[in-house]
Design brief:
Helix content is 0%, strand content 45%. By secondary structure, the chain is mainly beta. It has a four-stranded mixed β-sheet with strand order 4-11-10-7, with no helix packed on it. A three-stranded antiparallel β-sheet has the order 5-9-8, with no helix packed on it. Strands 1-2 form a two-stranded antiparallel ribbon.
Length: 174
């Protein structure tokens, strides 16, 4: 494949024959035409496809060097997330990194674009973040309680001191 700057020359020969039965003469015409290459756009050749991750996963790198092809130019990459309250994205060279928002689950589309000389190709894939069962957490410290032997204590509402981020009902044992 010639480079962008290469101009390919081709001879085109046109021959016109005289059908005069007496001399059978012909006329010949030649001309040189130059054909310049056209910049081809990048193409998506290996789509990323749907991806599934667990909630609270660490950053996930995805190699995108095989996703696009441009036969005549180098490419630069950009990416975006349709839902940045679920997943944020970053590009470093040909590595796409997905970063997950803490305690968030759901689905979003991720757009990855290759650009070459102003021409673009975009691959869009769905990323799903599945919820995981988080353990209960302490939301406030319990105060120290003292009392007299044999006296009754007032009840303590433990829901003021513990929570489940998933909204599951908590069961307490003492």
């Amino acid at each position: 494949i010639p480079s962008e700057q290469t101009i390919v020359s081709k001879w085109i020969r046109v021959q016109v024959n005289n059908t005069d039965e007496y001399d059978g003469s012909g006329v010949f015409y030649s001309d040189e035409k130059q054909i310049a290459n056209v910049d081809d756009p990048p193409l998506v050749i290996n789509p990323i496809g749907s991806q599934t991750f667990n909630e609270n996963s660490g950053p996930q790198p995805i190699d995108i060097s095989n996703v696009f092809e441009d036969i005549d130019s180098s490419m630069e990459y950009t990416a975006s997330s349709d839902n940045e309250s679920l997943i944020t994205v970053g590009i470093d060279g040909s590595t796409l990194t997905l970063t997950f928002v803490a305690d968030a689950s759901g689905e979003t589309d991720i757009h990855v674009t290759a650009t070459s000389n102003g021409l673009q190709a975009t691959d869009i894939f769905q990323a799903t973040v599945t919820p995981v069962n988080d353990p209960p957490q302490v939301k406030a410290s319990m105060p120290d309680i003292s009392g007299v032997e044999g006296a009754t204590f007032a009840s303590i509402n433990l829901n003021n001191y513990f929570e489940d981020i998933d909204g599951d009902e908590l069961t307490y044992t003492v």
